[in-house]
Every structure is written in C-alpha cells, then in structure tokens.
Design brief:
Length: 123
Amino acid sequence: MVGPEVVDLAQWVRLCGIGEVPAVGQVAELEVGGVGICLANVEGELSAVDNWCPHRRGPLGQGWLEGNAVVCPWHSWMFNLTTGESEYPVHEKVAVFPVRVEGEDVMADVESAPKEKAVTTPE
Ligand code: FES
C-alpha cells in the first residue's frame, strides 16, 4: 500500500551573505522578493521573522534584542524569535522563517511569508 505523497513546499531564498549578517546581539532589516524580513543574531544563532509588526507595521528589523525576543522600535511590543509569539502584549504573532547557512549564503524558507507587499513609511 502506498501512503500519501509528501510534497515539500519549502521556498528557500538567499537572504544575504554570511559576512553580511548582523553582529551578535543585533537585528537587521532585509527584503527578498517583496517580503520584509527581520534577521536577528542571538549569541551567534540566526533567526528570521516577518519584519512588519502586527500592531502598526513598525519595522522589527530596526528594533533591538532583549534575550531571545525582538522589540519593535515604535511601541515596544516584543516577539519571541523562536515562536513568533508576542511576549508583550500576548496573543499577537509574527511569522517565523526557518534559516540555514549554505556555504557563504544565508537562506530562509519564506513559503509561509505573508503574501502582501511590504509597506514602508515615507522618509
Ligand atoms: S508598531 Fe510595533 S509596537 Fe506599535
């Protein structure tokens, strides 16, 4: 008997070069294919989450780290980089994208990314 076919829907894209990742304890704002991504470096461990805060779409990649959470620079909501769930306030969430390093490239699986176009604030 043959089981259901397993289809890999992952969509790995190059985020940046290994030499371009944020320093330990820092975050950076990236965009790939219209998807805004906040890349964080927690003690050498890279994490990628949706760049746009669900509160008022503040840029998380311009925020800062507190432990394993990124803090939104606009009104200080905090999102766990492993689960995407907010630590303050509760019941909010951002998408988390798996990250891996392939040679000199940092890759992320953006299949679960919100499909809407990123919004930027005027200069
Ligand atoms: S926009 Fe992020 S906390 Fe308000």
